[in-house]
Design brief:
A hairpin with a 2-residue loop joins strand 3 and strand 4. The protein has 18 helices and eight strands. The chain folds into three domains: 69 residues, no CATH class; 254 residues, no CATH class; 130 residues, Serine Threonine Protein Phosphatase 5, Tetratricopeptide repeat, CATH 1.25.40.10. By secondary structure, the protein is mainly α. The relative contact order is 0.09. A three-stranded antiparallel β-sheet has the order 2-1-5, with no helix packed on it. Helix 10 packs antiparallel against helix 11 and helix 16 packs parallel to helix 18.
């Protein structure tokens, strides 16, 4: 009996990798590779087989099991992804977000104009908070691959609106601090500082500044700096990190050519934004009270939503190169959702004995694993600690994605309480890895750091985890907890 051939693992294809072609049809892209004979298979050569509730993709030549070929998102150029972005704010969800946010901003802008000078500051902060929370929410949503626009959750006004607003305003101020400082020094009028914020809301500069070439040179310098600053803030960096040239250079190298593509797109959007402000000025001159403000805000909000989408797409394609998310989030099947064109008869009707045994074995293993996962879920629901820990240990070789993050977190918590620290570390790491955008992720990381530092005396690694929480989840209770346990850096 000949020895079984080794399993062939197909590496993840990168942007520069040559496409894999089907062995039988060289003109067709392959989407799977047979684990038995090593053949690359197109949809015509692969077979979809169903055994009860289990669907398998098999090799049409030898009947062996297959693995999908994976490709990095960077294979699709960012330039191609940017071609249809103009439709983004005009989808059903986009129009709902546009109207809702515009109405709120118009009301705040109107109240700012009619309020006493001292009352304008909290209104401006609220205006900026809602604007920047929406902006950064679109960036993060696009970075996850979301195609719909959703309004931010403002259940906690400080965490969900004011804090993102302060981060956005701080980023904006740091980038254009030279221009803003120059404007304050040259404008001798009373309340110049309050007027500066009013310029930001209404985009109405004093005539003396409009004619000052030094001011515009400083504005252009800030505009060239702005894309990287916004990207860093959206990715979780604190505002003061944008003045670190070493960090900026590392990010620039990681993003490569795509950063300049995104910057070019933002430059075009900047021109459109100036035109939009001209249109908004004309709408305000109609003086239709809140209606004029609403239309003006809607017109000027379109470009920021598009700009946020551009930055999000840049992270969606190249975020792994700058440490945003985990590497496996950036790979997907070469053929997307394409399925094999051939479906064979159910098990036992038309398959040879050898193939039948192979599929039966795979289906049996799948059913057994599903049963164990169901038992684990029941044990977690019943808070049956010994059984949950035992089942989780049995499923240790299973891909982490098969287990819900809440179950990883539960096992990590109880394992830490029971003193099984290696199991706690494994479960908490997987809880954060499988769903980095789930609310359980920062909680799991804080628990992981506490187990490492307080129970396993690995203080250095615990501090690394705390610093990652501060970087990745800056606006969470977990980050506030971590900030109290991270030693200040010198220099």
């Amino acid at each position: 009996m000949p020895a079984a051939e080794p399993v062939i693992e197909e590496p993840i294809l990168g942007p520069q990798s040559a496409p894999v072609r089907c062995r039988q049809h060289p003109g067709e892209l392959a989407g799977w590779r047979c684990q038995a004979c090593g053949a690359a298979l197109c949809p015509e050569c692969a077979e979809e087989r169903r055994v009860q509730t289990v669907e398998l993709v098999a090799c049409g030549a030898c009947g062996g099991t297959t693995q999908p070929l994976l490709v990095h998102r960077g294979v699709v150029p960012l330039t191609r992804r940017l071609r249809g972005i103009w439709r983004y704010p005009f989808t059903s969800s986009g129009l709902q977000l546009l109207v809702g946010v515009s109405l709120f901003l118009a009301a705040v802008a109107w109240m700012t104009r009619v309020s006493f000078p001292v009352a304008r500051i909290p209104l401006v902060v609220l205006y900026g908070g809602v604007f920047w929370a929406t902006f950064f929410g679109v960036v993060r949503g696009s970075a996850r691959g979301d195609t719909s626009l959703e309004a931010p959750d403002f259940s906690d006004i400080f965490r969900d609106a004011l804090l993102p607003g302060l981060r956005g305003l701080a980023t904006f101020a740091i980038v254009w601090l030279p221009a803003l400082g120059y404007a304050l020094l040259t404008q001798r009028a009373p309340n110049a500082a309050l007027g500066m914020f009013y310029w930001y809301i209404e985009w109405s500069l004093p005539p003396a500044l409009v004619a000052d070439p030094v001011f515009w040179v400083l504005v252009v310098m800030g505009a060239l700096w702005l894309p990287m600053a916004l990207l860093m803030t959206a990715a979780g960096q604190p505002p003061w990190a944008i003045v670190d040239p070493r960090l900026g250079w590392r990010l620039l190298q990681g993003l490569g050519r795509d950063y300049w593509v995104a910057t070019g797109a933002l430059a075009v959007l900047g021109v459109l934004h100036a035109v939009a402000h001209g249109v908004a000025t004309g709408l305000r001159l109609l003086d239709l009270t809140l209606i004029s403000d609403l239309l003006a805000e809607a017109v000027t909000l379109v470009v920021p939503l598009l700009a946020a989408h551009v930055l999000g797409l840049l992270l969606y394609v190249r975020g792994d190169s700058v440490g945003y998310g985990v590497a496996r989030d950036y790979v997907e099947p070469v053929l997307g959702g394409t399925r094999p064109r051939r479906r064979v008869a159910p098990l036992g009707e038309a398959m040879p004995t050898a193939q039948t045994a192979q599929v039966v074995e795979a289906a049996t293993e799948a059913r057994a694993t599903s049963a164990q996962l169901a038992d684990l879920g029941a044990a977690v629901e019943a808070r049956d600690v010994p059984r949950a820990m035992a089942l989780y240990a049995e499923l240790g070789q299973l891909p982490a994605l098969r287990i819900p993050p809440a179950h990883h977190l539960f096992v990590g918590q109880v394992a830490a309480t029971e003193g099984d620290f290696p199991l706690a570390v494994q479960a908490l790491e997987r809880a954060a890895d499988v769903a980095p955008d789930d609310p359980t992720a920062p909680r799991a990381l804080v628990l992981l750091a506490r187990v490492l530092g307080e129970r396993m005396n690995d203080v250095a690694r615990a501090e690394e985890v705390y610093r990652y929480v501060l970087h990745r989840y800056p606006d969470t209770n977990a980050a506030r907890f971590a900030s109290e346990r991270v030693r200040p850096t010198s220099g």
